[in-house]
C-alpha cells in the first residue's frame, strides 16, 4: 500500500511536508542560540526565549520569514516530493528476494570474478551455467516476474539513496538561507519589539577586545590629522614638523603610524628631566643600533665585558660541537675517499696526459702573450689586459658585476647538480656491461630484477627526501634524517640477499659504479652549494655605526711599557692612553655627519628617514619645552631627514604666533605644524566601532561627552562602562550612566577638595568646604534607589553662589580660590547635565525633541562643553546652559536648594546594602 503522507503543519498552506516544518523550527532554534541574540534575552521581562519562539511560530511571522527564501524552499519541496514518491514505490515493491533471483545473482557474480582470476575453462563453464539459468528464468513466467520485481526494487533503492542525499543537501541550503535572510533578520526585529521602548539603551556588547589593548596598532583608524601629517611629510624632502594638541589627543599614535611607513624610523621619548647631552647621546646610540638591525648586522654587546669564566662557558659547548662534527666528518670523508679513490685515479690516469698537454699549451700561450705585451709588441692585448684589470677592480664593490655573478650562482649550482644527479643513473642506459648483466638477470630471475629496482628507487627517494611531518589519524609522524638512516639501513640490508646471485652481483659491482657515485655526490654538493655565499665586505655605514657605538658606550685605554738599563738594574717607563668622551659640539657634528650619510643612502633608494621625538609636552611648562627645542635645534635640519616632534598646545600656539611681535625658538626650529584636535562625534563612533562590537549609539554619546572627544579618555571611559557592567550587572543606560558619572564626579571632587585644602580659610569662609564635604558624603554610598537628597546636593553645588552663601565674607576669598570654586561648581553642573540627559529613560524621544528645539541639542555639544572646561569655567557655563535649555532642563533650581544642602546618608542603603565606597552598588537618582 502506498505510504500515507503526513498532513500539513500547523500553518495551512505554508508547509506541505513535516520536514519543511522541522527545518524551519531548527532554524529558529539556531538563531535563538546565536550569542548576539541570546545575550539580549532575559534583560527585560518580555524579552525571553520562549516569547521569541512563540512569536516566530505565529502565522504572520512565518510568512515574513519565508518570503526571502521562496526559491530555496521550492527546490527543497521538489526534492522532498521526489524522495517521497520514490520511497512510496520502494515500500510498494518491498518483498524478500526470490530463490531464482538469488541463484541468478550468484552465478553472475561468480562469472565476473572468474573473468579476473580463473582459467578460461572455468569461465566458459560458468558462462554456460549463467546463460542456462537466465534462459530458464525467462521461459518461466512466475520466475521472470519475481526477478523483474527484485531488480526493480534494488534499482529504486539506489535511486532512493541518491534522492535522500539530494533532499538533505536542499535541506541544508534552505536552513542556511532561513538563518541568513529569513528567520535571522526577522528574529532581530522581534527581539527589538519585545525589548520595548528605547532598546538601544541596553548594554549588550559582543566584543570589546580593542578597548583592552589601547596601544594595539591594529585598532588605529585613519583621521584628518593623520592625513594632514602624511601630506606634509610627502611634500617635503626633509624638515621638522611638530604635532601639537592636548594630552590624550593621539599625538603618540600619530607619530608611530608615520614612523611605520618610513624606510628607517627611530622613535624616542623626551626625558622628563632632560639633559641635552644625554638625550643626544641616547639618540645617537639608538640611530646606530636601528641602522645595524635594519641591515641584519648584530649590535655589539658592549654593556658587559666578558670575563674568563664566561669565555670558558661559551667555548666548552663550542668545542663539543666542533669535536662531534669533526668526528663524523673525518670518518665519513675517510670512507668516501677510500671507496672512490681507485675509480678516480683510473679516470685521472686515463685523461692525465691529454689534460696536462693542453694545460701546458695554454700556459705557453699566456706567458708568450704576456711577454709580448710587456715588450710592447701587442698593443691590442695590452688594452684588453688593462680593461680586464679595471673590470676586476670594479667588481670589488657590492653593486658591481659581482652582484650579477652572485645572482646567477644559485641557478648554476642547481642546474649543474641536477644534471650530475640525473646523469649518474642515466649513464646506466649506455653501459654495455650493465646491459649484458641486466639481460642475464631478466632471463634468470625477472622478479628479483623488479624487486632490486624497486628497493633501489625507494632507497634513493628516502635519502633525497627532505624532513617532513605527516599527520595520520591525529598522530603526527616526523620523517627526519635519523628515521631515514634507520629505514635506509634496513632496506640496504634487505638488498644484500638479492646481491648474492651472480647477475645481481655483476650489476652492483660494475666498474663504472664508483664513478657514478662520485658524480652523484658531486651533484648533491652543488645543489647544496647554491645557498653558499661569499662573504661580502661590510658596508661603510655599518662599520661607521659599529665604531660609533664602541666610541659612545666604552672607554678605551691603551698602555705601552719600555724597559731600559742593565739586567742588574731595570727601569720601566709606562705610557697610558685613554679616549676622551666627545664634547657636545663634536657629538652634534658626528651625529649630523652620520645621519646625513644614512639619509643620502636611503634617499637614493627612494626611502625615507624619520626621527620621531615624543612626549616633549611632558617636560612641564611651555618655557621648558621651548628651552628643550632650543638645545636640540643643532641636530635638526639634516637633509632628507624628517623630524617629527610632539609638543603641547602652548608650543604650537607659539609657532602660530611667530613674528608677532617677535620671533621665537619655534620659528627657527620648526618648519611646519600639525594641530591634532579632539575627535568629532563621527570620529569617536568610528574609534569605538573599530574597538568594540555591539556597543549602541547612546553609550557612544555618553562616552564622547565624558571624554570631550580625546581618544585616550574615550577608550578609558569605554572600558569603564564594561567594568561597571561586570561589577554591578546593570544593563540599562540609566543605571550604568548614573553609576559612571557619579563615580567620575566623586573622584574629580576629591581632587578639587585637595586643592582647596591648600588655600587659606577662615571661620566665615568655611561653609564652602562644608558644602563640598556634604556633596562627597552623598556620593559615598550610592544605590539604585531614587534619592531626592542627592539631587538637591548636586543642584546646590552646581549653582553655588559664593556672594549669596557667604555674604560680606565672600570678599575674604582670594581670586585663585574663587576660580577653583567656580571650576568645581561648573564641573558639577556638567555632570548634573549628563545625569539629566542619560540618567532618565526614553533618551531617543528626548533627543529628537531637543534637536527640534535648538541646534544646541546636538549631543556633540556636550563634548565641546567638556573641552571648554579646560579653558575656563566662565566660558563653559553658558555653553552648558544652552545645552540644558535645548533639553528642557531647569536652569536655576528653587531658592531652598540654593541655600541649604541636606545631610548625607551615614550608612549604606538598607534595601541595596553592599560594600561601602563609590561604585560598589547602584547609582542614585539624578
From TrEMBL:
- Could you list the residue ranges that cross the membrane? 102-135, 325-348, 372-395, 407-430, 450-470, 482-500
What name has this protein been given in UniProt? KAP NTPase domain-containing protein
Give the record's keywords alphabetically. Answer: Membrane, Transmembrane, Transmembrane helix
Q: Gly residues compositional bias: what residue ranges?
A: 916-926
Task: Name the SUPFAM superfamilies on file.
Answer: P-loop containing nucleoside triphosphate hydrolases
InterPro entries reported in the protein's UniProt record: P-loop_NTPase
Q: Where is this region: Disordered?
A: 890-926
Asked whether the keyword Transferase is assigned, the reply is no
Source domain of life is: Bacteria
Amino acid at each position: 500500500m502506498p505510504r500515507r503522507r503526513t498532513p500539513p503543519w500547523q500553518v495551512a498552506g505554508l508547509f506541505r511536508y513535516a520536514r519543511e516544518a522541522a527545518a524551519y523550527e531548527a532554524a529558529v532554534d539556531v538563531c535563538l542560540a546565536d550569542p548576539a541574540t541570546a545575550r539580549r534575552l532575559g534583560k527585560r521581562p518580555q524579552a525571553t526565549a520562549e516569547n521569541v519562539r512563540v512569536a516566530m511560530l505565529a502565522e504572520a511571522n512565518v510568512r515574513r520569514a519565508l518570503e526571502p527564501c521562496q526559491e530555496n524552499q521550492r527546490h527543497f519541496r521538489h526534492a522532498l516530493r521526489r524522495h517521497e514518491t520514490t520511497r512510496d514505490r520502494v515500500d510498494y515493491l518491498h518483498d524478500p528476494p526470490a530463490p531464482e533471483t538469488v541463484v541468478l545473482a550468484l552465478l553472475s557474480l561468480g562469472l565476473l570474478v572468474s573473468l579476473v582470476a580463473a582459467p578460461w575453462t572455468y569461465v566458459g563453464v560458468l558462462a554456460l551455467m549463467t546463460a542456462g539459468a537466465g534462459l530458464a528464468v525467462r521461459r518461466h513466467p512466475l520466475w521472470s516476474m519475481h526477478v523483474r520485481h527484485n531488480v526493480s526494487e534494488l534499482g529504486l533503492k539506489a535511486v532512493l539513496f541518491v534522492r535522500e542525499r539530494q533532499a538533505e543537501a536542499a535541506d541544508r541550503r534552505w536552513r542556511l538561507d532561513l538563518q541568513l535572510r529569513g528567520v535571522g533578520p526577522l528574529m532581530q526585529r522581534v527581539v527589538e519589539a519585545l525589548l520595548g521602548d528605547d532598546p538601544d539603551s541596553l548594554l549588550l556588547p559582543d566584543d570589546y577586545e580593542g578597548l583592552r589593548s589601547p596601544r594595539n596598532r591594529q585598532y588605529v583608524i585613519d583621521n584628518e590629522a593623520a592625513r594632514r601629517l602624511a601630506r606634509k611629510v610627502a611634500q617635503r624632502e626633509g624638515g621638522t614638523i611638530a604635532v601639537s594638541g592636548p594630552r590624550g589627543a593621539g599625538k603618540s599614535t600619530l607619530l608611530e603610524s608615520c614612523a611605520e611607513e618610513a624606510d628607517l624610523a627611530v622613535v624616542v621619548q623626551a626625558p622628563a628631566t632632560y639633559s641635552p647631552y644625554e638625550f643626544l647621546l641616547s639618540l645617537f646610540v639608538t640611530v646606530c643600533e636601528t641602522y645595524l638591525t635594519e641591515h641584519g648586522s648584530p649590535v655589539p654587546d658592549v654593556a658587559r665585558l666578558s670575563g674568563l669564566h664566561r669565555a670558558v662557558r661559551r667555548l666548552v659547548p663550542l668545542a663539543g660541537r666542533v669535536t662531534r662534527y669533526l668526528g663524523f666528518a673525518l670518518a665519513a670523508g675517510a670512507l668516501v675517499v677510500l671507496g672512490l679513490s681507485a675509480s678516480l685515479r683510473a679516470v685521472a690516469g686515463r685523461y692525465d696526459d691529454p689534460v696536462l698537454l693542453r694545460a701546458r699549451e695554454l700556459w705557453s700561450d699566456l706567458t708568450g702573450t704576456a711577454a709580448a705585451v710587456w715588450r710592447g709588441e701587442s698593443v691590442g692585448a695590452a688594452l684588453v689586459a688593462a680593461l680586464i684589470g679595471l673590470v676586476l677592480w670594479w667588481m670589488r664593490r657590492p653593486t658591481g658585476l659581482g652582484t650579477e655573478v652572485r645572482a646567477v650562482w644559485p641557478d648554476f649550482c642547481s642546474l649543474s647538480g641536477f644534471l650530475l644527479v640525473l646523469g649518474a643513473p642515466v649513464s646506466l642506459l649506455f653501459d654495455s656491461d650493465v646491459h649484458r648483466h641486466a639481460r642475464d638477470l631478466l632471463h634468470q630471475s625477472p622478479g628479483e630484477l623488479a624487486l632490486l629496482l624497486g628497493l633501489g628507487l625507494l632507497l634513493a627517494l628516502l635519502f633525497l627526501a627532505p624532513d617532513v611531518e605527516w599527520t595520520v589519524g591525529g598522530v603526527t609522524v616526523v620523517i627526519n634524517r635519523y628515521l631515514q638512516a634507520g629505514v635506509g639501513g634496513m632496506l640496504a640490508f634487505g638488498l644484500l640477499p638479492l646481491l648474492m646471485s651472480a647477475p645481481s652481483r655483476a650489476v652492483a659491482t660494475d666498474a663504472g659504479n664508483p664513478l657514478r657515485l662520485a658524480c652523484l655526490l658531486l651533484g648533491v654538493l652543488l645543489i647544496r652549494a647554491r645557498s653558499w655565499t661569499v662573504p661580502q665586505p661590510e658596508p661603510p655605514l655599518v662599520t661607521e655605526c659599529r665604531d660609533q657605538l664602541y666610541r659612545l658606550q666604552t672607554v678605551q685605554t691603551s698602555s705601552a711599557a719600555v724597559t731600559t738599563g742593565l739586567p742588574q738594574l731595570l727601569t720601566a717607563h709606562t705610557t697610558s692612553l685613554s679616549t676622551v668622551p666627545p664634547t657636545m659640539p663634536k657629538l652634534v657634528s658626528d651625529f649630523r655627519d652620520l645621519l646625513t650619510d644614512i639619509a643620502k643612502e636611503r634617499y637614493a633608494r627612494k626611502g625615507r628617514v624619520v626621527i620621531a621625538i615624543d612626549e616633549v609636552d611632558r617636560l612641564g611648562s611651555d618655557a621648558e619645552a621651548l628651552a628643550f627645542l632650543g638645545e636640540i635645534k643643532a641636530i635638526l635640519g639634516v637633509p632628507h631627514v624628517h623630524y617629527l616632534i610632539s609638543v603641547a598646545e602652548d608650543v604650537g600656539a607659539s609657532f602660530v604666533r611667530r613674528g608677532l611681535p617677535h620671533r621665537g625658538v619655534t620659528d627657527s626650529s620648526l618648519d611646519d605644524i600639525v594641530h591634532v584636535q579632539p575627535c568629532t562625534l563621527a570620529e569617536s563612533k568610528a574609534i569605538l566601532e573599530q574597538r568594540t562590537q555591539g556597543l549602541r549609539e547612546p553609550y557612544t554619546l555618553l562616552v564622547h561627552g565624558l571624554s570631550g572627544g580625546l581618544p585616550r579618555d574615550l577608550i578609558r571611559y569605554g572600558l569603564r562602562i564594561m567594568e561597571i557592567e561586570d561589577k554591578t550587572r546593570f544593563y540599562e543606560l540609566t543605571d550604568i550612566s548614573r553609576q559612571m558619572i557619579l563615580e567620575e564626579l566623586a573622584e574629580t571632587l576629591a581632587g578639587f577638595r585637595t586643592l582647596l585644602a591648600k588655600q587659606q580659610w577662615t571661620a566665615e569662609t568655611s561653609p564652602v568646604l562644608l558644602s563640598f564635604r556634604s556633596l562627597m558624603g552623598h556620593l559615598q554610598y550610592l544605590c539604585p534607589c531614587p534619592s531626592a537628597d542627592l539631587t538637591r546636593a548636586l543642584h546646590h553645588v552646581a549653582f553655588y553662589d559664593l556672594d549669596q552663601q557667604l555674604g560680606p565674607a565672600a570678599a575674604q576669598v582670594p581670586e585663585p580660590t574663587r576660580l577653583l570654586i567656580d571650576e568645581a561648581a561648573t564641573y558639577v553642573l556638567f555632570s548634573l547635565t549628563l545625569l539629566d540627559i542619560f540618567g532618565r529613560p526614553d533618551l531617543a524621544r528626548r533627543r529628537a525633541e531637543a534637536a527640534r528645539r535648538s541646534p544646541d541639542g546636538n549631543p556633540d555639544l556636550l563634548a565641546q562643553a567638556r573641552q571648554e572646561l579646560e579653558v575656563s569655567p566662565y566660558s563653559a557655563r553658558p555653553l552648558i546652559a544652552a545645552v540644558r535649555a535645548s533639553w528642557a532642563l531647569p536652569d536655576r533650581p528653587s531658592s531652598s536648594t540654593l541655600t541649604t544642602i541636606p545631610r548625607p546618608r551615614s550608612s549604606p542603603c538598607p534595601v541595596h546594602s553592599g560594600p561601602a565606597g563609590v561604585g560598589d552598588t547602584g547609582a542614585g537618582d539624578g
